[in-house]
């Protein structure tokens, strides 16, 4: 689905520049306590921050990094924005972090200052490392350099090599609460009226809210609920909303939000599998979505 005309443009700060960390006080406290006691109890060199996208993992990672590293030259970042190819040329538009990016970071780290201050390696995210890059990081983690802290951002823990995971202290970060989402909306989207339904659609991810607003996902969801609650809704009405949902794969999960809204717990696993199969089975995704809407309607 194309963004709506006159849809608001959002300018959110990059996590490295964002000082507005909301939530995750427990994870931050766990680190600060460990950091404060590092002289008597050596701090774990590898911290893995896991949880859904858009909840502030990278923002927290950069906040921790700024507490730790001593000199500008002792901070090393691996992410898609700094990705390079085999010739060392910038390749920031990809979806996978190359092994060449990791190797370049390791080379820079080996030539970094010998000031004795702590160094930080921040990877955002481990999910985006290709296999060779993951193996290169693993070799580094097997014998971590002294006074070096690794901050690993992870969206899906299942995507991380078990050997990498086993060498990390895993901090599982929870989705944001509705009140925390409201706080962030007030700061970064002050002119928008963000409904409670939209906040719930975000599943605790502030990063999803702008996407929902840009795509018109909140309006599509409202139309879906209207169709489901309307006893006079026809098959044509349901197909029309199915086509709108099918136009943007990111909107497919609003069907699960509808299931949850109506308390249809028994339908949740069926709908989840059906959504996963939509693009595999149907040449026209709206057919699969129409069937799910029909099943929800039958249960009301």
The share of residues in extended strands comes to: 5-15%
Q: How many structural domains in the coordinates?
A: 2
Radius of gyration: 22 Å
What is the terminal separation in angstroms?
28 Å
The CATH topology of the largest domain? Rossmann fold
Strands of the widest sheet, in order across it, are 2-3-4-1-5
Q: Average pLDDT, to the nearest integer?
A: 89
Can you name the CATH architecture of the largest domain? 3-Layer(aba) Sandwich
The fourth-level CATH homologous superfamily of the largest domain is P-loop containing nucleotide triphosphate hydrolases
Q: Give the SSE order as H and E letters.
A: HEHEHEHEHEHHHHHHHH
* Largest β-sheet summary: 5 strands, parallel
How many strand elements? 5
Characterization of the model:
Helix content is 47%, strand content 9%. It is α/β, with parallel strands linked by helices. The longest helix is centred in the C-terminal third of the chain and has 15 residues. The N terminus is likely disordered.
